[in-house]
Amino acid sequence: MENIVEMRNIRKEFPGIVANDNVSIELRKGEVHALLGENGAGKSTLMSILFGLYQPEQGEIFIRGKKVRITDPNVANELGIGMVHQHFKLVHNFTVTQNIILGRESKRFGFVVDEKSASRRIRALSERYALNVNPDAKIEDISVGMQQRVEILKMLYRDAEALIFDEPTSVLTPQEIHELMKIMRNLIDEGKSIILITHKLREIKEIADRCTVLRRGRVIGTVDVASTTEARMAEMMVGREVSFKVDKKPAVPGDVVLKIEGLNVLSARKVLGLTDFSLEVRAGEIVGVAGVDGNGQSELVEAVTGMRSVESGTIRLRGRDITKQGVRERIREGIAHIPEDRHKHGLVLDYTVQENMILETYDQKPFSNHGLLDFPEIRKYAECIVEAFDVRAGEGVDSLARSLSGGNQQKAIVGREIELDPDLLVAVQPTRGLDVGAIEYIHKRLVEQRDSGKAVLLVSLELDEILNLSDRIVVVSHGALIGDVQADETDENEVGLMMTGIRKGESA
Amino acid sequence: MTPKVDPAGRTRRWTIPKKYVNSLFAVLLGLIAGAFFMLAIGRNPFVGYFYLFKGGVMNLKYIGQTLATSTPLILTGLSVAFAFRTGLFNIGAAGQMLMGGLTAIGLALTFEHMLPRGILLAVIVLGSIVAGGLWALIAGVLKARFNVNEVVATIMLNWIAFWTVKYGVYAFFRDPQQETQSKAIDAVASLKAPWLTSLFPGSYINLGLFLSLIALVIIALVLDKTTLGYELKAVGFNRSAAEYAGIKVNRGVILSMTIAGMLAGLAGATYWTGYSSNMQIDTSSLPSQGLDGIAVALLGTNSPVGVLFAAVFFGMLQSGKGFMTAVTGIPPEIADTIIATVIYFAAAAVLIERVLDAWRKRRASKALAATKKGGEE
Ligand SMILES: Nc1ncnc2c1ncn2[C@@H]1O[C@H](COP(=O)(O)OP(=O)(O)OP(=O)(O)O)[C@@H](O)[C@H]1O
Ligand SMILES: [Mg+2]
């Protein structure tokens, strides 16, 4: 079969680390080729090289058998390579069409941009691949899933043949993932070829033909997906067996830590995002909040952590009313928060790892004294977290947060929040973008947190994670709490049904 | 096979901070442009530059003059750089400097015969700092409370300050002999110190130089070593993350702006009660140090040490141009052109970075291609 892309003996170094070491990979025409590897294994780096964002120190690239030098993304476009990045690159107050033709329009001698015909072509493409995108909608008005499709259209508009997807599903809801899989199949049917980076083995099983496994910058092997088990792939990737089931004893709930009563909260769009919401979380239990995205989860999290003010109702922590307290006071009272959006809230990307590890505690002893930062103490503390949570970066705690791989950024945040040893840990999608080994470890730490008598409020869109980790599951729909069940007395079907808004006991 | 390359050697070679390279390039390009201008009017650029730089440093008088010219530039540069580092664009250094200067002149003329020199100078200096700070505070509050862009606010405040000084000086401190300027302050109220002036005879050097260096050290410490600097930089880099961490973002914006204003205010004192001894009100433009401060900050890559070098460099061109003109007849506008060109290139540092990147890339891929000789093409 013809190879559309072939990368041979690629080597790429960053200060202190070899991100790609003699990596070879080939993409056959018409296949979905998965790229699997631990966080920081070098997947994004390899694809960035193919897309012309980085130059390799060594190695060569062949496109349709011809040796090429991809000096920048424009060259990649010319060669028919497209990429959907993990973090989209769209202009929010532009329309879909404007975003797609951005950077293309100038080639037609400047000012006469023919938006109409572009819009027509985009509509046709959207229909052909069943993407269902409105070319005239503004980016800020469409969902994340739709934005991703705009990125896909961008590649198709540029006639890309080889499509790179870097962790496309980590930002999607389960429903959107399902649809993306369908879209990918359409793309393959239309003769495209796909490289898919993902940490979810199930997705690889579902859609990929072959899978190349990377570990610490090297290729471990390329396998035929149909004849390989998920467990085998996981083992190739981390070098040991991985347990997918969380191992935990029954919970021993203690005193009420978080008590929410009659909470009404306005959403960003100034409508009630949470209505008359009440919830208790006790010491020693993990309460999972299940629900379709956008049903009040963000409002709940922001109200509890103090990032959004409430209209009415009370929030109590260990009996103390904290409804009117600011974010910092609540942190001091013992609330920690793993945020949903790691780049927006979780990290100051231009700070180093060690600076990020004291984001909430920099003004406390031992990290500062009379307003002066104590760098040796900060370094020591950061090194502890990096060590415990296996945060890998070229220059250790001196690396800029920006330079870390996505998963390592996430591990750093999770580590920082768990190390606060909070009475209440609000964990939103805590394992987003993590490899299976890291997920196993984070889950273990969350259970440990519970076992030491702390309360954990887990918000996740992944039903598996909720079912696996929680002791009690509450379901939100349209800003209201519509279900509250013990995790060991329920199953995927029941929770899934409740998520659609049907209360327990009511029949569908 | 491809030859092994030493990774350590390579990384070391490329880790010379790019930002300094850019600044040096900006200076170099500015000088080259200036050379072309000199050639264009039929002068020898080597001779021109020789006298330009000689004029900045040839004897104690000119060295003193260079330092005296640099003094307010250090402070306005620092003001802009500090704001930049905390995510704000302070176009208002000129206005803050004017308000600081007006306050300094006002305090000097009012108290010069009442207070002993030490206390008098302290009052003048502190007054100018407070005035500059308060002036910038307005922009900070507008931004924090009403989301008014600080660029717009500080530009408007610049002109309000301009007219305030015009009418303030005319109404209260006018020189009866010459109505377009304030009365001159007494030597007792001046930041010029006899011992310093005798070290650099004939120059306008004054104690402001030491004040600016002290300010520089304090700002460097605040930015790099304190929790305050940590907070303010976090707000500048990522507002949302700062909010998430419970940092009071609005307070940070107001505070940053105020500190920037305090620095520019002090520049006013060093200029009008140090370098000069009265305020002219017959001008139609803002003091040049305001905009030059932006250039100094850019060229100094917003770091205190960089600001010091950039300010002294500009000060040297400013003070050397007179000598160049006197000796060679090259018009002083050439020196201004060089300064403008350097500013231009410093501002275009991003562009320069791109060019350098492309050049590096090409070199890297050339090296790559070279290792492939003999392989298929
Ligand atoms: N621009 C950069 N500067 C310095 N180091 C970098 C840079 N980009 C990546 N790295 C380092 O290279 C290594 C590989 O990173 P890469 O992003 O390719 O990992 P990844 O396999 O995509 O991981 P993840 O699954 O977490 O996204 C990491 O150790 C990372 O810290
Ligand atoms: Mg990645």
Describe the structure.
The complex is a heterodimer of chains A (508) and B (377). Chain A is α/β, with parallel strands linked by helices and 508 residues long. Chain A is 32% helix and 26% strand. Chain A is built from 17 helices and 22 strands. Chain A has a 6-stranded mixed beta sheet with strand order 6-7-8-3-9-10, sandwiched between helices. In chain A, strands 16-19-20-13-21-22 form a 6-stranded mixed beta sheet, with helices on both faces. The termini of chain A are far apart. The model of chain A has no long low-confidence stretch (mean pLDDT 91). With 377 residues, chain B is mainly α. Chain B has helices spanning 7-14, 18-40, 45-57, 60-85, 93-111, 117-146, 150-172, 194-199, 208-225, 227-237, 239-244, 249-275, 289-299, 304-328, 333-347, 349-371. The longest helix of chain B is centred in the middle third of the chain and has 30 residues, at 117-146. Chain B is globular, with a radius of gyration of 23 Å. Mean pLDDT of chain B is 86; it is low at 1-15 and 368-377. Chains A and B meet through helix 10, helix 11 and strand 18 of A and helix 1, helix 10, helix 11 and helix 16 of B. The site of magnesium ion has 6 residues of chain A, from helix 1.
